Amino acid sequence: MHALWWVIGVAVATGVAVAMLGRGYEVLLGVAGPAVVAGASWVLMTRTWARDPVALLPLLLRAFAVKALIFIGYVALVAGVFDVRLTPFAISFTVAFLATYAAEAYGLWRLMAPVLRK
Fold first, then answer.
1. pTM of the predicted protein model
2. How many CB atoms lie within 10 A of CB 87?
3. pLDDT of residue 21 exceeding 70
4. For residues 24 and 85, is the Cβ–Cβ distance under 8 A?
């Protein structure tokens, strides 16, 4: 199984476990956003790479702008609409964001390794 899916699974499982323990759903909301966005972008990247490797860079550039807007909107929505404690949300969001994107970078490196070695 790919490292990104492991990270997403662990992040979501941790968020669910913490929410079920009565610690609040802030942690679940904090890990859900980065996990969903990283999973969706990974699927788009692998499909693009399989279809046309040259098209990956333009996709990554567009995805960067879209992800920035999604995350700004997501954080504003959670902080403004939901009644959450901001510290647990911010910590879990930051940790999940960094973990999923580190796994995504590792996955891209492995995906491109055969081409980069030439």
1. 0.81
2. 9
3. no
4. yes
